[in-house]
Amino acid sequence: MIDSNIENDYVQDMVNYLILVHEKLSKPFEDCFKEKLSALQFNTLCVLRSYGSLTMRELAERMNLSKQQMTKIIAKLVKINFAERNYDKDDRRIIKISATKEADEYIKLESKAFARRLKDIVNSLNEEDLKDLENAIKSMNKILPKFPKWLSK
């Protein structure tokens, strides 16, 4: 069992880490797309690109949103031709949502621009900081998958 003071330090360190990741990485990454997409729209497209076609229920569950919220997001993405609704040929009540090629191209293009900026920042770090960053990323990639899917549940 971890001492409660140490546990509190872990929690505070994690909160500080999340704030920094948002400020230094997540927000600038989302800003690359804000001309056309909200953060939720962008995240929706990322989920669709990762998992392929999903029903509205499946997508809402993966995003931890209600179906009503998801419906509004998808409507906007369909309107700008970044998502499409595909009806099941055997049961038209089943509708699968998928990202379009246009969405894929847009995300790839903007992601490359962000990657170039990130590369410039990483290249400005000294060797010791680069090694620390590499180890920290490897550690987080090893540990974070062990966290429960949704901390709010």
From TrEMBL:
Q: Which SMART domains does this chain map to?
A: HTH_MARR
Superkingdom, according to UniProt?
A: Bacteria
Question: What Gene3D superfamilies is this protein classified in?
Answer: Winged helix-like DNA-binding domain superfamily/Winged helix DNA-binding domain
Keyword terms, alphabetized: DNA-binding, Transcription, Transcription regulation
SUPFAM superfamilies reported for this sequence: Winged helix' DNA-binding domain (SSF46785)
Q: Which residues form the HTH marR-type domain?
A: 1-142
- GO MF annotations, alphabetized: DNA binding; DNA-binding transcription factor activity
Ranges in coiled-coil conformation: none
> What is the protein's name according to its record?
Transcriptional regulator
